[in-house]
Amino acid sequence: MLLEGKNAVIYGGGGSVGGAVARAFAHEGANIFLAGRTREPLDRVASDIEKAGGQAEVAELDALDEQAVERYVGGLVDSAGSVDVTFNAISLQDVQLIPLVEMSREDFMRPISIGMTTHFLTARAAARYMDTRGSGVILTFSASAARAYFPGVNVGGFGIACTAIEALTKQLAAELGPSGIRVNCLRSEGIPESWESASTEEWSASTGKIEAFLKQRSLLGRVTTLADVGNAAAFLASDLASATTGTVFNLTSGTVID
Question: In 3D, which of 97, 94, 125, 124 has the Cα closest to residue 112?
Fold first, then answer.
């Protein structure tokens, strides 16, 4: 098992991406700690993990609350002994499909503020404890909107937030590397599986048409799946990737070329 005995925290663990990563980590032997603002979806993911023979604990937490994050990580270290891996899959609450010239300041800034705040606070809290052990892995999450630009595709502040998350990842990697802490980002394409709970009114076209568009612009002619994200996260969190840090791991199925 790639992560046997590791303590892994997944923020936004009740969502589709966070849940997929949590299940993948558990499959590889990690002890899972799920954190998020709403209990019910966290409990569902924890139940799935436990039914499969894994271990998962749940905590209601607002990752925008600096003191709450610090208390949570400190308490986890006191009870479990360490925090070895963190992954941030918290929703950026972005507004899309509106041209920037028509968008409100609040809607534009929201994903940037949420993305930067939650990634910074969760990474900082973990790094302080990882530093004393001389090891640890921090994983961030962005999307192809950080690099892919198309006429008529209006993503608001989302792409800018993703770009900022990737920049933060590299800065953290540079500062934390001497302490043995690795920091990497997973950059995904749109994941149709994760849209099941979204209202079709939120999109400018049907999910089927959007999926077809994603396949058309993909070099592989396919879409990225939740399993792709989970598998990549497990690899990056493991010792198999011990020489990898400061990297944006491309999971866009070839819609973005690095």
Answer: 94
pLDDT of residue 204: 47
- The residue ranges of the chain whose pLDDT is under 50 are 198-205
Domain of 79 in residue numbering reads as: 7-189+224-244
The Cα 172–Cα 184 span in angstroms is 9
Distance CA 214, CA 133 (A): 42
Q: What is the total count of domains within the chain?
A: 1
Of 15, 17, 27, 20, nearest to 6 (Cα)? 27
Q: Which two tokens stand for residue 255?
A: 């819609």
pTM above 0.90, yes or no: yes
Q: Which of 235, 121, 241, 127 is nearest to 173 (CA)?
A: 127
Determine, yes or no, domain membership for 205: no
